[in-house]
Design goal:
This protein has three domains: 51 residues, Orthogonal Bundle (Arc Repressor Mutant, subunit A); 69 residues, Orthogonal Bundle (Arc Repressor Mutant, subunit A); 54 residues, no CATH class. It contains eleven helices and eight strands. A three-stranded antiparallel β-sheet has the order 1-3-2. Strand 2 and strand 3 form a beta hairpin. The N terminus is likely disordered.
């Protein structure tokens, strides 16, 4: 098939894109002197991008946008995505996120409210939605990525150190004063000989709790 010949009006359209960055379908139709259907065919040939806000009514040429690290470009209230549609953009952003993304976080990144679109969750292939504090949070459906994102968003509570009773703690600290530089294992042995049953692990926890481990290491 022979390539389509360039019409006389197309150079003017390219120049207009370079001057204004974005154009509407109506503006393009007037410039090219043809129907909206013909304009859409031209846009497809040019691999033009449509805006993901403003109901997709704005277009730009692929050479014009300067996309940020997330693949987004915003020009005077008109937003474009390297990934094309809003659907593909949301899927891409969630997959790359460290801890999934909520509706509010997606709105902040995209610059537009995706809530009405996100209501059609079945269309978001590769994602799973969960409700947390009355807000939907979107995670990757890929199991390993999902587990990592979920753990990053909801890190486990730190486990409390198991400490000896206060009376035993005082005895341990007194013993440490008498024998500075002693390890928890050595202190455990000394106290065992004096009739106190306390393990080295619990003594180590005591040192950690009182910030003594660093001081003891520095003194070595």
């Amino acid at each position: 098939m022979r390539p389509r010949a360039t019409t006389a009006h197309e150079p003017a359209v390219v120049h207009a894109f370079k001057q204004r960055n974005v154009l509407t379908l109506a503006e393009l139709s007037a410039m090219l002197h043809c129907s909206n259907g013909t304009v859409r065919r031209r846009l497809k040939e040019w691999r033009a991008l449509s805006s993901y806000n403003n109901n997709g009514r704005y277009y730009t040429l692929p050479s014009i946008p300067r996309f940020d690290k997330k693949g987004l470009w915003k020009h005077q209230g008109v937003f474009f995505s390297k990934h094309g549609t809003l659907k593909n953009t949301i899927i891409h952003l969630v997959h790359l996120s460290a801890a999934g993304l909520s509706n509010a976080e997606l709105k902040q990144i995209l610059g537009t409210d995706p809530t009405s679109y996100l209501a059609q969750r079945k269309q978001l292939g590769g994602l799973k939605a969960e409700k947390h504090n009355r807000e939907a949070v979107y995670f990757s459906a890929e199991e390993q990525t999902y587990r990592r994102q979920k753990q990053n968003r909801f890190p486990p509570e730190p486990t409390a150190l198991k400490l000896p009773p206060d009376a035993i703690s005082i005895i341990v600290l007194v013993q440490l004063i008498k024998h500075p530089g002693s390890t928890p294992a050595e202190l455990s042995d000394m106290l065992h000989h004096e009739g106190y049953q306390i393990g080295a692990d619990m003594i180590d926890n005591l040192f950690e709790h009182h910030g003594l481990k660093k001081k003891l290491n520095m003194s070595e």
